[in-house]
């Protein structure tokens, strides 16, 4: 049986059992890529182990043959055949190993590229992880900001439900708009001024001073409760919610009408000096005004009939900006009038000074003439007699002769002064 197996190119069962696990390991290593990381030393170690096993197996068969000499010839033949087969197997494995080494060398650049790709993928994964952490942190921060905004909004909404807080907020907004327009407190406007009229004592939030000594009253009103509840309902709401929103908007319009009627009855213009017959109702939110006018288009006409002008922040700012410009123009006009008056006065004084200069010139001319007459009389009458005395032996020295003044004062040639002098003549 063993000889037949050897002749058919197969190892005996015991040798196959011994060598087959090692062959399986080697084959598995080739298939899974383990040989990629094996070096020459490890492969040589495997071959040595296989040779040692084969030699040990042969030695066992030799000893067995000695123990049974009857079949020693057949056994020797069998052992030789098995040894040849083992050697063939080892040579075949060595050839396969050389082939695999060549394949591995050829695939080495591919392995390098794969390693680089693996590193790149690892870097990308790390970057993705970092970016995911940053995005998570940003989302967490956004949630915190939203929560803070929500709590702040709720606090503001609850505060504005109070009438006193709404009034203070309206006054603050009014002052901000006025200061943004360039007006100055106690110069261009006064706050909380008391006004006495036929309707009684009133105190508007602000009195704006207009050029020319005129004034206009401004009062801030904040109809907010109904509008705030209506704004919490979507505009696309239908059914019960839609009806509730319309009802709240009507309540908002009613609140605005109530403020208009109250301001119209106070008649602030009667208690102000040179004031137009109207009072400005300042509502510190564009949405409050626009929603009321949208719900009731006749609200503006009702306000005009009560001599009340509804003003949003933008409207009031434009009006007050015009007032500030008027004040600047008024100041420029006053300065121009002062310049004109001062110039006229200066010209009058220059004319008077020209008269004094003319008088002084005439006096100088007369003095020069008198001086020359004096010098002529002295030289023609006094000095000849004095010379006679000197010739008689008095020894007196008459000194140098006196010179006359030939130049006269310069006449005025400026046309302004000449015109003044001609006008006088």
Identify the notable features of this structure and list them briefly.
Trna Endonuclease, Chain: A, domain 1; five-stranded mixed sheet; two-stranded antiparallel ribbon; 3 domains; 425 residues
Query: What is the number of independent domains?
Result: 3
Quickly name the level 1 CATH class of the largest domain.
Alpha Beta
First-residue to last-residue Cα separation: 170 Å
Beta fraction: 5-15%
Number of helices: 11
Rg estimate, integer Å: 62 Å
| Anisotropy-based shape | flat
Structural class: alpha/beta
List the helices and strands and how they pair.
Layout: H1 2-7, H2 13-32, H3 40-67, H4 72-160, H5 163-180, E1 189-191, E2 195-197, E3 200-202, E4 206-210, E5 214-220, H6 225-231, H7 239-266, E6 279-282, H8 286-295, H9 299-305, E7 308-311, H10 313-394, H11 415-424
Parallel strand pairs: 5-6, 6-7
Antiparallel strand pairs: 1-4, 2-3, 4-5
Structure explained in plain terms:
- 72% of the residues lie in helices and 7% in strands.
- Helix 3 runs antiparallel to helix 4.
- By secondary structure, it is α/β, with parallel strands linked by helices.
- It is flat.
- Strands 1-4-5-6-7 form a 5-stranded mixed β-sheet, sandwiched between helices.
- The chain folds into 3 domains: 128 residues; 145 residues, Trna Endonuclease, Chain: A, domain 1 (3-Layer(aba) Sandwich); 93 residues.
What is the compact description of this entry?
This protein has 425 residues and is an alpha/beta fold.
């Amino acid at each position: 049986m063993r000889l037949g197996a050897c002749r058919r190119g197969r190892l005996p069962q015991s040798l196959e059992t011994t060598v087959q696990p090692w062959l399986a390991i080697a084959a598995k290593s080739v298939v899974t890529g383990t040989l990629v990381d094996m070096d020459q030393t490890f492969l040589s170690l495997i071959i040595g182990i296989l040779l040692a096993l084969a030699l040990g197996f042969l030695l066992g068969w030799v000893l067995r043959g000695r123990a049974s000499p009857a079949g020693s010839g057949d056994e020797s033949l069998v052992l030789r055949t098995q040894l040849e087969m083992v050697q063939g197997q080892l040579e075949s494995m060595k050839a396969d190993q050389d082939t695999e080494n060549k394949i591995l060398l050829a695939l080495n650049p591919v392995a390098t590229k794969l390693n680089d790709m693996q590193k790149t993928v690892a870097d990308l994964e790390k970057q993705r992880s970092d970016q995911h952490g940053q995005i998570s942190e940003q989302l967490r921060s956004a949630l915190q900001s939203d929560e803070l905004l929500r709590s702040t909004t709720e606090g503001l909404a609850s505060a504005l439900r109070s009438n006193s807080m709404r009034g203070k907020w309206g006054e603050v907004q009014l002052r901000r708009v006025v200061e943004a327009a360039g007006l100055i407190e106690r110069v261009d406007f006064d706050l909380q001024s008391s006004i006495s009229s036929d309707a009684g004592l009133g105190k508007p939030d602000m009195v704006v001073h207009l050029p020319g000594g005129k004034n206009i009253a401004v009062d801030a009103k904040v109809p907010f409760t109904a509008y705030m509840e209506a704004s919490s309902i979507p505009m696309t709401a239908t059914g019960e919610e839609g009806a509730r929103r319309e009802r709240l908007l009507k309540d908002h319009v009613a609140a605005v009408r109530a403020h208009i009627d109250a301001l119209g009855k106070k008649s602030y213009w009667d208690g102000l000096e040179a004031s137009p017959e109207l009072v400005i109702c300042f509502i510190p939110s564009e949405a409050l005004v626009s929603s009321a006018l949208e719900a009731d288009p006749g609200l503006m006409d009702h306000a005009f009939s009560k001599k009340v002008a509804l003003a949003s922040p933008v409207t009031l700012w434009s009006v007050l900006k015009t007032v500030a410009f008027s004040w600047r123009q008024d100041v420029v006009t006053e300065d121009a009038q002062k310049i004109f008056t001062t110039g006229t006065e200066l010209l009058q004084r220059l004319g008077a000074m020209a008269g004094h200069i003319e008088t002084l010139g005439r006096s100088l001319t007369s003095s020069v003439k008198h001086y020359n007459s004096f010098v002529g009389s002295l030289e023609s009458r006094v000095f000849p007699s004095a010379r006679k005395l000197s010739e008689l032996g008095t020894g007196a020295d008459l000194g140098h002769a006196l010179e006359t003044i030939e130049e006269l004062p310069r006449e005025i040639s400026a046309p302004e002064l000449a015109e003044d002098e001609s006008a006088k003549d």
